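Memo to structure team: turn this sequence into structure tokens by end of day. - J.P.
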Amino acid sequence: MSISLLLCIVLILFLIIAQTVIPYLVKRTVVFGITIPEQYIRHHKLNQFKKQYSIFTLAITLVALAVYLIWGLSNNVSEEQIVVVGTFLEFGIIFISLTFYFYFHGKIKQLKRTNKWTENLKQVQVTDLSIRSQDEMLPWYGYILPMMITIGLIIYTIMNYDLLPDNIPTHWGPSGEPDAFTQKTPFTAVQMPVFLLLIQTMFLGIHIGTKKSGIKLSVTNAAASKRRQLGMRKYSSWLLFLAVLAMTILFTFFQLTTIHPNLFEGTPMSFILPFGILAIILLATVLFAITVGRSDKTTDPVIEGDVTDIDDDRYWKGGLCYFNKNDPSIFVEKRFGVGYTLNFANPLGYLIVFLPLLIILFVTLLLN
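Reply from structure team:
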């Protein structure tokens, strides 16, 4: 089995598992993007729809993976073809899972409306003024270290500009060897660490925006929702910082091997490092999803009276995109998945996430 095929199989398997178990990891009172009052969360139809989604998604995607694996092993195909088809398959898996998601999203929405689950319940919002003091998110200045490493790398590259080859690598294949190049210029020499610095700035902005975002508690299960909110904020900040640190190490390695081609000559470092970092990130993501996803499902709710949480379904388009001008939060908890998504009604979110990416895309297209 080729390296490219092995890498694609690992990523596709991870994606299949993630898409299959998502309904069981989201917030307890959200089912396929629809808010369900705690009083009705054990309705047999809800669990039935979750099982059907998981079974359908798993069955179809595993068949697609099997076909891809047989094709990759039995045909004389190139590494490039394996990667291209594997990438299309990954997008196909996401499309399949989203198709089933929207189908069951409509089912749940109709079920909630037909049974009038919120009609006789008083919607209440809970506030805990002490919860901010219990927040254990990493401090923002932790991102200064990887950013300083990147700035130092840019300075070091400029100082050793004459050592750089005439053709600067811009892409590395699964084996860790460069497979795409651009002509050396003062900018292309530092292009990769400059892009890395932009990405680090974006992640820092996401961290700060998440830290300043609201913490929403449940009126019927305050203890469990508090545990989930604090846990998600804490562990998501760790995961985000780990991703930044991993990218910094990887980009630094590639930049140094460009300046000094013989630095790791004769060692399997160019192969081991990318795969090692990928394995660490995937493992950390799994641990994060399981830890946070199960954190609000171990405590039975305490329902006092005919009350429920604020029903904000109207602010969620399809249960995926959040638009609420009255909410100052830049990032809010996802309704399908574990982690955060943008409040698309807050312009700061666009500035934090999309501006660095647009700069990178614009510069890349300009150089080509």
